[in-house]
Design brief:
CATH architecture: Alpha Horseshoe
CATH class: Mainly Alpha
Shape: globular
CATH topology: Serine Threonine Protein Phosphatase 5, Tetratricopeptide repeat
Largest sheet: 2 strands, antiparallel
Order of helices and strands: EHHHHHEHHHH
Strand order of the largest sheet: 1-2
Distance between the termini: 6 Å
Structural class: mainly alpha
Number of domains: 1
Length: 211
Amino acid sequence: MAISRDDVLAWINDYAQVIEQNNEMLTDLDREIGDADHGANMNRGFKAVAAKLPANGDKDIGAIMKMVGMTLLSTVGGAGGPLYSTIFMEAGKTIGPKMEMDLADWYAALQAAATGVANRGKALPNDKTMLDALYPAVDALKAAIEKQLPTAEALRLSAEAAHAGMLATIPLVARKGRASYLGERSANHQDPGATSTFLLIDTAAKAWADC
């Protein structure tokens, strides 16, 4: 079944609420290995995004993603702004002017997003970044598509893989970003960027469960 433009709008709006609900948790995680502002920055950015959604309700999916990316770039501080902007900008360019997409479109969008983030952040797997949640989500989605699993199951497996990737950041020593300044002291802490990335994938799985 197809994921419509309205489904995409619902996912983005839901994610803005999820970020607001997890604002303090994300900031607490960032307090341990970063600047203690990831939750606040993301909340500010997605509040701005949510405020713009009604005026963009008639746009195609690619245009909506571009709007989200541009809004985040201008409102989210720190590294999160450019990186999350990249996710949405690359996804939007990949999906293009479609009013609905299928799982293959979503996989291509996430793959492009992961590549864009890796290039922008010069990061690799196991560097203790958002990629440690994003890459597993992409790989799980690809495997589910190859098995021709139903949309809801494929999205759930993608979210579960992102969750496992998020938890796998806990023992890692950070090699990129603010956390890398701590060296070995960055171990035993969950990466906040991987956490907000898991929430992004998980919110999509829940929002599109009936697609």
